[in-house]
């Protein structure tokens, strides 16, 4: 429930203060990567993230520090089971789509080297920027539009996390689908970290995985080592602030007590080591482990609601002109919505048995043809089974809007869910099994 206020402290405020503490850097601020600007939608990532060299004010040329990061010490995967080894050696340089950074085993290293030989520098940049543009603008993924959609979330609880938004979407089938901030946030992690759109531009099967690709932004363990991570999260914080401005919540907002996603025992809630199970969360719950230096106490959400209290603001950006629809506009958009759209719920996918991040791609079979419905990105870990905090949110749920097929009962419609993973695509329902798991709890149904 601390997301996104905890990320504000973890990745942004404390880092910016640390940078400003360096001699000669007192005026340094963290920039944001504007992901709905005309330039980004047209060109992909700004050149500063992809250029190999940069020229400083004194005319000297250096390696671009925003292209990648070199690990100063080895990153050891201490939860080794069944060949799950996400270790990275000292000196490893972070990579982005379409490259692979797997190096935990000799086999991984060899496969990554062979895979990466396919792409010279120019091809890497071209493919990466193409992927970013496509994810943001294509009709099938429309990530840029999802940023605008999440700004329309009616309250902080459903805006802030996927679990709460899922409950809202299940209970409000006649209203527009709520998109939580986590959704477009996760899309961009996976976009830069190795998932791509269909190479042939297929609209029926648009979600694929480039076999062999494994960028660091695409996995929780290593995402923060890629320099672009912080620019992405500054943007997420900006979207959060824009939501606050639009909803009159710049000085105070509430967390709906008892709502799914607001208790430490709920699926999808991040739990800290010193928190108890079945603990209700509110705006005064401590944001571990971040200490307010002025008081000596742990920060709370209440402390960080108003960014002016933290001493920063945002410069001009592409969301400045966005306004919420008026009541009349909302009424017009809802005309016939109950008749024309149905709410589809997918649940029972346990991410503990899926190696790494993945995408839930949803289809409907109509007249023998597979028709694309939508997709949801799941930012995960290479090995979830050995992550204690992850055990609180293993079950993945997703909600989609589907057309109302006149004369066809809901229970007669045929749906297919695909889990697009790092090691292939699994169709559900199916006989897909690992040695210890099958998708026996999987369900996909229309909520009438």
What does this protein structure show overall?
The chain has 448 residues and is α+β, with helices and mostly antiparallel strands. The chain has two domains: 5-56 and 92-310, di-copper center containing domain from catechol oxidase, CATH 1.10.1280; 340-446, Immunoglobulin-like (Sandwich), CATH 2.60.40. Helix content is 27%, strand content 17%. The chain has twelve helices and 13 strands. The protein has helices at 5-20, 38-43, 106-116, 121-137, 143-150, 156-160, 162-171, 182-192, 228-246, 301-304, 327-334, 337-340, and strands at 53-55, 61-63, 195-197, 207-209, 286-291, 298-300, 341-350, 358-366, 369-378, 395-403, 414-421, 424-428, 443-446. The strands form five sheets. Strands 9-8-11-12 form a four-stranded antiparallel β-sheet. A hairpin with a 2-residue loop joins strand 11 (414-421) and strand 12 (424-428). Helix 1 packs across helix 9 (228-246) and helix 4 packs antiparallel against helix 8 (182-192). The longest helix is centred in the middle third of the chain and has 19 residues, at 228-246. The two termini are 29 Å apart. Residues 199-204 and 430-438 have low confidence and may be disordered.
């Amino acid at each position: 429930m601390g997301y996104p206020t905890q990320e504000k402290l973890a990745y942004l405020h404390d880092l910016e203060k640390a940078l400003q503490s360096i001699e000669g850097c007192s005026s340094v601020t963290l920039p944001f990567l504007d992901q709905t600007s005309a330039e980004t939608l047209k060109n992909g990532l700004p050149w500063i993230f992809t250029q190999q060299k940069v020229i400083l004010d004194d005319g000297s040329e250096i390696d671009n520090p925003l292209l990648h990061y070199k690990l100063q010490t080895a990153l050891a995967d201490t939860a080794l089971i069944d060949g799950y080894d996400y270790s990275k050696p000292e000196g490893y340089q972070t990579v982005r789509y379409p490259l692979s950074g797997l190096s935990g085993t000799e086999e991984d290293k060899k496969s990554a080297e062979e895979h990466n030989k396919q792409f010279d520098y120019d091809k890497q940049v071209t493919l990466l920027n193409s992927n970013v543009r496509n994810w943001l603008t294509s009709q099938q993924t429309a990530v840029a539009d999802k940023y605008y959609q999440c700004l329309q979330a009616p309250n902080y609880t459903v805006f802030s996390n996927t679990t709460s938004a899922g409950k809202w979407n299940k209970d409000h089938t006649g209203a527009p689908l709520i998109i939580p901030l986590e959704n477009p946030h996760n899309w961009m992690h996976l976009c830069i970290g190795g998932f791509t759109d269909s190479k042939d531009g297929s609209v029926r099967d648009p979600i694929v995985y480039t076999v062999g690709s494994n960028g660091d932004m695409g996995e929780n363990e290593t995402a923060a080592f890629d320099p672009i991570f912080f620019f992405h999260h500054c943007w997420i914080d900006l979207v959060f602030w824009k939501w606050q401005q639009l909803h009159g919540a710049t000085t105070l907002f509430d967390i709906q007590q008892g709502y799914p996603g607001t208790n430490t025992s709920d699926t999808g809630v991040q739990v800290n080591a010193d928190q108890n199970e079945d603990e209700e969360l509110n705006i005064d719950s401590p944001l571990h482990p971040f200490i307010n230096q002025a008081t000596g106490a742990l920060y709370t959400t209440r402390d960080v609601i108003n960014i002016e209290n933290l001493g920063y603001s945002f410069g001009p950006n592409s969301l400045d002109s966005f306004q919420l629809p008026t009541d009349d506009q909302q009424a017009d958009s809802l005309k016939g919505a109950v008749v024309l759209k149905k709410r589809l719920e997918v649940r029972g996918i346990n991410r503990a048995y899926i190696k790494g991040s993945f995408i839930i791609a949803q289809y409907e079979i109509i007249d023998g043809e597979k028709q694309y419905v939508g997709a949801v990105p799941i930012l995960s870990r290479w090995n979830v089974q050995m992550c204690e905090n992850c055990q609180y949110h293993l079950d993945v749920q997703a909600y989609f809007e589907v057309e109302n097929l006149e004369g066809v009962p809901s229970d007669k419609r045929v749906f297919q869910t695909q889990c697009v993973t790092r090691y292939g695509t699994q169709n559900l329902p199916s006989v897909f099994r690992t040695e210890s798991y099958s998708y026996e709890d999987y369900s996909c149904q229309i909520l009438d």
